[in-house]
Design a protein that fits this description.
Largest sheet: 7 strands, parallel
Distance between the termini: 42 Å
Number of strands: 7
Strand order of the largest sheet: 3-2-1-4-5-6-7
Number of helices: 8
Order of helices and strands: EHEHEHEHEHEHHHE
Strand content: 5-15%
Number of domains: 2
Structural class: alpha/beta
Shape: globular
Length: about 270
């Protein structure tokens, strides 16, 4: 079991809210689940790895003043798994106010080098998984009078990066889906927004760098050097952290953003402004 070496300051921005975070076992999802709980939410930690989801729930339980946490193994690319995830959240906590559709997989390859199987795998999790998790939770949010959905896209959906065809297509689709759904369910007080993170050295991102020889654009640069050089591309002069995304997600999950829907939020150290 992971040891919680970074206790999080608690608050009340999400007090009484119930949240589902997919991909909560590591990286951006784990940080967001922990910060949601630190702001008073009860959190269902969902991940393809039940062990990883359980570890995040354990870290939340160890943080004094945090909300409650439970966990579930969930494959977001499967419709039944999403339905089970939502039903367990309802059974455990009684409602669902927030969905952070964060689960994702890496995918490197150009249009000509990406196999059909790889395309289907990446689209299946990164786009279809967002669709299915949204689909599973929206009827319950409508029934209870509203809710907030935060979908995870990527900077690659806003700016062209070489060698990540399936990943870019999936993340671009997430933006289009988010905007369409936001308009469709605004009348029901279901707010749906999308975050586009820049480069953050999570396990997902570093796996892409390593697969491409240390450089997301190709080449054979050592990983540490490649990440340091990547940080220099951003106007704020560094790579992002999982907490940078968690803070944006808290805002979108909270009542502070109650007049915000269908909006794209780049969290990218200024890269999208170049």
């Amino acid at each position: 079991m992971m040891k919680n070496t970074h206790l999080i300051k608690t608050g009340e921005r999400l007090l009484g809210k119930i949240a589902i975070v997919t991909g909560a076992g590591s990286g951006l999802g784990q940080a967001s689940a922990m910060h949601f709980a630190a702001q008073g939410a009860s959190v269902m930690c969902a991940d393809i790895s039940e062990k990883a989801a359980q570890a995040t729930a354990h870290l939340i339980a160890e943080n004094p003043g945090s909300g409650k946490a439970s966990f579930i193994k969930a494959d977001v690319s499967e419709e039944k798994s999403n339905e089970t995830m939502v039903n367990k959240t309802l059974d455990t906590f009684g409602q669902v106010d927030i969905l952070f559709a964060n689960a994702g997989v890496p995918g490197a390859g150009s249009v000509t080098t990406t196999t059909k199987a790889e395309w289907d795998r990446v689209i299946g999790v990164n786009l279809t998984g967002v669709f299915l998790s949204n689909k599973a939770v929206i009827p319950h949010m409508i029934a209870q009078g509203g809710g907030s959905i935060i979908n995870q896209s990527s900077l690659t959906a806003l700016t062209a990066w070489s060698g990540v065809a399936a990943y870019t297509a999936a993340k671009g689709g997430v933006i289009a889906l988010t905007r369409q759904a936001a308009i469709g369910y605004a009348k029901d007080n279901v707010r749906i927004n999308v975050i586009c993170p820049g480069t953050i050295p999570t396990p997902l991102v570093t796996s892409v760098y390593e697969e491409r020889g240390g450089n997301v654009l190709g080449g054979s640069t050592p990983l540490d050097q490649a990440l340091a050089e990547a940080g220099e591309m951003f106007p704020l002069g560094r790579l992002g952290t999982p907490e940078d995304i968690a803070y944006m997600a808290i805002y979108l999950a909270s009542e502070e953003s109650k007049w915000v829907t269908g909006t794209i939020f780049p969290v990218d150290g200024g890269y999208n402004a170049i």
